[in-house]
Amino acid sequence: MRRAGIDVGGTKFLGVIVDESGSVISEVRRPTPNGAPALIDALVAVAGDLGPWDSLGIGMPGLITRDGIVRSSPHLTGVHDLDVRRELAGALGREVSVDNDATCAALAEWQVGAGRGVEDLVVVTLGTGIGGGIVAGGHLWRGTNGFAGEFGHMVIDPEGLECPCGRRGCWERYAAGSGLAQLGRDLVAEGRGARILDLAGGSAAAIRGEHVQQATREGDSDALEAVDRFGRWVALGLVNLANSLDPAMFVLGGGIAATPELYVGSITRWFSALLYAPDRRPHPTLTFAQLGEYAGAIGAALLPAHT
């Protein structure tokens, strides 16, 4: 059986065909166009470029209803209230499954990645924002409307940093990829972080997470402090999820999974310090995603069997 999946990102599509084991056997990449009509046309084109397939799933960023309607997608220009499933089914003459991209990534890590065989787990993807998925009792849990997993918009500081969503103190403002860069800029504003600033070409505004990571690898004490602060913010959100959901495992994906050695010590230490009744309960396993950039597309390919 040839299962097709397309992961729609803000800048590109990644389409794959996976075999029965979930391994990628072919792939197609295409830039993401602007506007709903062009988006549907591009999805149809990628579905055709993938060649013959038996089922097709689509992973979309944003709020995706259970019946495949994109209610809101801040990373896609001109796309809202778009019935992707109906539009594609009409264009292709076949049924299509549609879900949130982070939910698809969670499905992939659960079925064929780091969480394989675990009945209760939470996958958290820390990228430009923070999303994820919940597996409870061996089933993907989507919530009443299909919007479960928007972890990045848990408010952890009501008076905190402004989020692009319009609120303040959302978790992703602190623990997503931009959070580490912000911590580096904060150090420079304090008159510290000289090595981080040097790696950024002398411009505080140009500091990115990669600069903090590189300085950390070099053993720079200020960068190590920034990573520890970042680990605290990550752990704070994980603790809230652990206290609410009591999973057996957390799988961390996104950019953080590429360099787990930089973060695992800080996150684990702060998690134990912040967890409710830490000495009275088993702690969930903390591990890192295995499927990299393919997680969303693989999960989309597996989606029809789980909807």
UniProtKB/TrEMBL annotation:
Name under which the protein is recorded: Unannotated protein
Organism: freshwater metagenome
Gene3D superfamilies, sorted: 3.30.420.40
Example GO molecular function: UDP-N-acetylglucosamine 2-epimerase activity
PROSITE patterns in alphabetical order: ROK
InterPro entries xrefs: ATPase_NBD (IPR043129), ROK (IPR000600), ROK_cs (IPR049874)
Classification via Pfam families: ROK
